[in-house]
Write a structure and sequence with these properties.
By secondary structure, the protein is of the alpha/beta class. It binds adenosine monophosphate.
């Protein structure tokens, strides 16, 4: 081989913010803050404070490789932490505050966090954590000193603003190997203990670039993007990296993610694109329906994290002219694996053909290879018909779990591809359709029923706001589907009419035997319906 004669510069996260501060210096980060204010500044201002924080972290004794944890919402301060921590070669470890306390305790101990920065409204949670002992992280509250007493915090916690004060607003960002760890995020741990995905500078920068490539409208110039998806869950789908890289302003919602709060913020700030899970977007949609309009300027939503329903897609598009893009990914993939950008060729499609395309999880991103395998690990054809377990490989896919050899050994197939645990179909032009989580499939009389298909059909019934299909053990068939439904308040469910509607798209044997109404459905810490809890509740076992 003849070696190329080009310079080798590491792909580093600090280069994203120094680039954005120079080239897109006047683009904004606007935050609806935890204390109810609207904070705004530019990428240039952000870099000055990130520099101060980098100095402050070093003064606190944070060294390269140390884990620095956050329990925080989407705010400008969380953004600053992302860049300062990774920029000095330490690891930004985001923790989901909605996880059960025992899991947070486990994660902090497993990661051996040196420092924990948290939003002031989470002070109560901090009080319940097991932070005793010599190895407990030092605490920083993301507020000014004057707010510490309000948050009920004593002298143990340092105020973030006091930490920054007095430090220079310029910093010489060190150059180091691009494979250095930059971020850490534990999976929500629906089974067993949470497992850590340890990202590198290279994987994060590469991933941010590939989410931008080929998705022109999501990153259109002068775009204003609101990540509903939290920065504590897989880097808010990379938006804190990709938005500055593409010159987008970021509108940060803080802790309030109800439909009314999101609507008001989007409306006042002219948000063009917003990204989130279906449950939260459904709340926004409900507010839009009540207001009889969309937030000023909103052109598109990117939905992922769990399957978007046809009902959600069609209401956004047909009632409000807001284009929907369906994306798929995993914590282990940084996270975006596929994205449902529809080209011009989709413009002429009729509604149902367009919805069908949008219900698929889109096409794979550059740098993410996908295969489907059968139970014996043999590759299945990518013909859009065969379904098998989806395995992936790529530069932004984990090569193992952080300090967890057992989980790492179980996560890969014989060829070294990562096993996603999702069952999927792939077409010969790279379009992915997730059939179900492998463990959520229902096996009735030897035939598979997709819980996702049942849910997609049921969500079209007027008044159904959320639903989940689960397997219930059955003496004759092995398993039979049960459907748990949450209705709009005050709306009664006509069970037979729902069954009749579902029968239009499903075979009779696929229809749920039981339809159960619940006023609330159990949710996971990442905003998905917890089928594990539902199964325990309804069947009595996990
Ligand atoms: P997490 O690591 O918590 O982000 O969860 C990843 C899992 O969420 C995937 O393996 C899928 O089962 C599910 N998921 C993510 N996006 C989608 C989507 N668009 N449609 C269906 N399932 C999804």
């Amino acid at each position: 081989m003849l070696r190329g004669q080009m310079m080798q510069r590491p792909l580093l996260i600090s280069d994203i913010i120094t680039y954005a501060a120079e080239v897109y210096g006047t683009k904004e980060i606007v935050t609806s803050t935890v204390d109810g204010q609207r904070h705004r500044y530019t990428y240039r201002d952000a870099l000055a404070r990130i520099s101060k924080l980098a100095h402050a972290l070093i003064a606190l004794g944070i060294k390269p490789g140390d884990r620095v944890a956050t329990l925080a919402w989407n705010t400008y301060r969380h953004f600053e932490i992302y860049y300062a921590v990774s920029g000095i070669g330490a690891v930004c470890h985001t923790i989901n505050p909605r996880l059960p306390v025992q899991q947070i305790d486990f994660i902090i101990k497993h990661a051996e966090d040196a420092l924990l920065l948290f939003d002031e409204d989470l002070a109560g949670l901090i009080g319940t954590l097991d932070l005793a002992g010599p190895h407990a992280p030092r605490l920083v509250c993301l507020a000014g000193e004057e707010r510490l007493p309000q948050a009920g915090l004593g002298p143990r916690a340092i105020a973030y603003e006091a930490l920054l004060a007095g430090h220079p607003d310029g910093f010489a960002w060190p150059q180091f190997d691009e494979n250095t760890a930059s971020g850490l995020c534990y999976t929500s741990g629906t089974t067993g203990a949470p497992k850590g995905a340890l990202y590198s500078h290279r994987s994060s920068v590469f991933h941010a670039m590939t989410t931008i490539v080929g998705r022109p409208s999501e990153f259109a110039s002068d775009g204003r993007i609101l990540p509903i998806v939290p920065m504590f869950h897989v880097n808010a789908w990379s938006l804190p990296y990709s938005a500055p890289l593409a010159g987008q302003s970021l509108i940060m919602p803080g802790p309030k993610l109800d439909g009314d709060s999101l609507f008001r913020l989007m409306d006042e700030e002219g948000v063009v694109s917003t990204w989130g899970v279906p449950t939260v977007l459904q709340g926004l949609l409900n507010t839009m329906a009540r207001m009889k309009r969309k937030p000023n300027g909103l052109a598109e939503v990117v939905v992922g994290g769990s399957a978007a329903s046809g009902q959600l897609i069609e209401r956004f598009e047909d009632d409000f002219g807001v284009v929907v893009r369906h994306a798929w990914g995993m914590t282990e993939m940084s996270p975006v694996g596929s994205s449902g950008f529809l080209g011009r060729e989709a413009d002429h499609l009729d509604r149902s053909s367009r919805t069908k395309l949008q219900l698929s999880q889109g096409k794979r991103l550059f740098g993410v290879e996908m295969n489907i395998i059968d139970d014996d690990g043999a590759a299945l054809p990518k013909d859009g018909a065969h379904a098998g377990e989806l395995v992936v490989r790529g530069n932004s896919v984990i090569a193992g779990y952080f300090r967890n050899a057992d989980a790492s050994a179980a996560a890969f197939d014989a060829a070294g591809w990562f096993r996603t645990g999702d069952r999927a179909r792939i077409t010969d032009d790279g379009r992915l359709t997730i059939v179900d989580r492998v463990k959520d499939l229902i096996k009735s009389g030897g035939e598979w029923i997709s819980s996702a298909d049942l849910e997609e059909a049921a969500m079209r019934f007027p008044g159904v706001v959320a639903c989940a299909a689960i397997a219930v053990p059955d003496d004759k068939w092995g398993e039979r589907p049960a459907l748990v439904v949450r209705m709009e308040p005050g709306v009664a469910l006509d069970v037979e009419a729902l069954r009749a509607l579902m029968a239009r798209t499903l075979a009779k044997w696929q229809l749920p035997d039981r339809i159960i109404i619940r006023e609330a459905l159990p949710m996971t810490a990442t905003g998905k319906i917890s089928k594990k809890d539902l199964r325990t509740e309804i069947v009595g076992g996990a």
